[in-house]
Amino acid sequence: MNVASNWFNSQRKSLQSYRCYIPVALTLCTGTSLSLAAGAFVWHSENQRMQVQFHEQADRLNAALQQSINKNLEVLYSLQAFYSASTEVSRQGFKQFVQPALSRNSAIHSVNWIRRVPAAQKSAYEAAIRAEGFPAFQIYERDADKKPIKAKVRSEYFPIAYREALEEDNKVIGFDVASSPDRKAALEKSVNTGKIAASARITLVSNDQPGLQVFLPVARRTTSLDNSVNGRQNLRGVIAGLFQITSMVDFSLESLNLDSINFYLYDNSATGKERFLVRYDSQAKQLIDNPKLEKPELTNVRGKICRNPSACTRLFNVADRQWMLLVLPGKG
Predict the structure, then answer these.
(1) 326 close to 313: Cβ distance less than 8 angstroms
(2) What is the distance between the alpha carbons of residues 220 and 289, in angstroms, rounded to a whole number?
(3) Fewer Cβ in 10 A, N or C end of the chain?
(4) At what angle do helices 22-84 and 91-104 cross, to 10 degrees?
(5) DSSP 146-184
(6) Residue 113 half-sphere exposure, CB side, CA atoms within 13 Å?
(7) pTM for this one?
(8) Treating both helix axes as pointing N-terminal to C-terminal, what angle do 22-84 and 245-252 enclose, rounded to 10 degrees?
(9) Mean pLDDT comparison of 140-149, 165-174, 308-317, highest-scoring range
(10) What is the pLDDT of residue 98?
(11) Which residues pair with 160 in a beta bridge?
């Protein structure tokens, strides 16, 4: 009994000695829990703040792109109105109207006036242009090596009659735009519908940069382009704007701070590899338009920001085509 009693008394005294540490332990546990809870709250708040900031940047980028594109297309609509209000527009009149717009819009590679020339009128049309001061003029197309050759026989032609660009190149005068496969579909759609139409991504002949050609038809005065048959007969001509995609996008970035986001621009109206237009690398701070350097990062959606893919995409129209902006968080 004495042994048991002694053991019990020693245990009681031991517990009494530890009792003084219980408040300290409780305080420590409570403090740790509160610190963890506070840390989690701060992390959650910071994460939400970053998500809001990210989506605000994406919205500003989308708005800036749309504004830049609309500004460039507005040049074509203004020229269309000028033609509609004029009985005849001379080569000099075309130049005086277009040149100021070119000086204000670096993304515009050139603005062209295209005429529809039925096969029966080809010889007379070529003679008339030669009389204007282009003695070697003829309607031509390009071969596989991009060298000019006489246009093949077909029912109609769409040669460039006037051209204005920051860099003058009269050799383009007479080129049959309908002979170019990557431009013909958009040209035909514009002529047949009487509405604006844009090409897919094309390569500019003069500098091998990615471009976009937009066609806007002009009806004869007091008529309309209401169907494909009457539309062709009533067609006065087609305004064609040639734009450099990288310059168009770069202009919209001037007022934005994109240190922490990357983006990709796609043409949803195209298919396969033709969809890619340009991407922005926030680390290198540059636009990359070479399809070979596309390096898709569609699966690199960091954190919860792009868990729903639609949250990181924005859609907008360019003439009759739909483009898609994919915005992704940058590293860090």
Answers:
(1) yes
(2) 39
(3) N
(4) 170
(5) S-EEEPPP-SEE-BEEEEE-SS--GGGTTBBGGG-HHHH
(6) 20
(7) 0.81
(8) 130
(9) 140-149
(10) 96
(11) 114
